[in-house]
Amino acid sequence: MNEGKELFIEIIDAKLHYLDNLDKKALYFDDINLVVLYNKLLNSYDELASFSDALINYILSYDLKQRIKEEDIKHIRDLFIGKKQYHLNVKLSNKFANIVKNFLTIFKDMLDATNPDLVDVESEYYNCQKLYHKIMTSEVITEFSYIEKIVRDYNPQEFDINMLKIMQYINDHNIFILRVANQNSEEDIEISYTHRQTVNKRIREIIDKFNVNYRELPSYIITELRKANVEGITNLYDLIRRNKAEDYGILHLINRENYLFKIAILLYATPDSIRGVVDSLRLSNGAVDIPSLKMLLNNVGTCILEKENGYFHPKFKDYITNISLLKKLKVNYRSLIKKNPLFLISNSDIINYTLHYLEMYGANKVQIVNKCYKSLLLNPELLIDNIDVLRENGVDVGLYFEDIVQNYALLKCVHLNEKLPLIKKMSKDQDYIDYTKLLIGVIYQNAKLERPIWGDIND
Q1: What pLDDT score does 403 carry?
Q2: Which residues pair with 444 in a beta bridge?
Q3: Strand 32-33 relative to strand 28-29, pairing
Q4: Are 109 and 34 in contact (CB under 8 A)?
Q5: Residues 300 and 356 in one domain
Q6: Terminus-to-terminus CA distance in the chain, angstroms?
Q7: 408: buried, middle or exposed (CB in 10 Å: 19+, 13-18, 0-12)?
Q8: Shared domain check, 351 and 284
Q9: 246: domain range?
Q10: Residue 130 lies inside a defined structural domain of this protein
């Protein structure tokens, strides 16, 4: 995979992980979503009629400057209640209008004081999912301001380097799409127009339940919906819309704005793949591990897709193989899902081959996963190359990894083939035991400090 693309996906995943871990309880007051309520009041002062005394008092507790009086805002609230219940004609004076504006300012201050990121959490989810979708499909990426923001948030110190890698990838991505689009533009327009007229009515009704504007759906989705089996989609929808995850109802666990993925489930998942993923996270008491299931669905949703298609790469088979392996090894798979959900949908054949190869020369599979899961996901060749380097330099790999699990960091060490000869030169007068200590002390520390290559040492 392209280095810039890998980095881009990693940054998006990090942002989604951060959003998932926000304390969203702070968004609610008496089961009322305060962000939604704020936006409604911003659009129409009539919404003030729904504010209880307790909620008004809570919001005013953040009015440190005492800009408005409690009785004034409640009086205005009562006017709008009268308008709603008795159809009174309410027209605010300039004084009362200013009071409501100040109340909105205090309301916003209260939301920001709770956590500024919570205010925009829905739009953040949408932006991340939109970027991820564009990476995986043939859509031009143009959200440069937002990309710059999340790249800076990810690592301010390496912003320039990371942004350069990502922009190089985006440039290649966009140029490829535009070239293809120019070659097939007339055909695409004809297909788009035709397909939008022929989607089955029942499927349209189901899609409408996802709160999506049908006319805004990409042409390729319309094409797939037109060809879809109506009975199959209806049965699948009836399964996933159930109230409990234990009964395979997963629809309510997917972020509201991620409507494309909901449609993808209807098109490319199967009852078996849905049951397989849910059952894989079933606890000993029969309940389902909801946090892990939600993490998978909202970050690596292709784990539930089984049917081959030209738009979303189905990863159900890889997921089932990988999670079965983790359970067999008694690895804490729930922790791994939280730290790096992409691991669960990585190529299972490559993971199995790499683990088998390393185990053959004395490494422990459990410790490889625990200590090297990122390298196992992104650069398994490095692990194989490094164990070969150790063997070629006379290191007893089994003994080396047997007692000190921190030594597994050596497998992730870049340019190990250049570092080991330097160690040999430094320790040529020492016996094997001291030589091993040097490997632990010097090379491990070097890898820990992320120094990729040592300086030259002359003979």
Answers
A1: 65
A2: none
A3: antiparallel
A4: no
A5: no
A6: 39
A7: buried
A8: no
A9: 196-340
A10: no
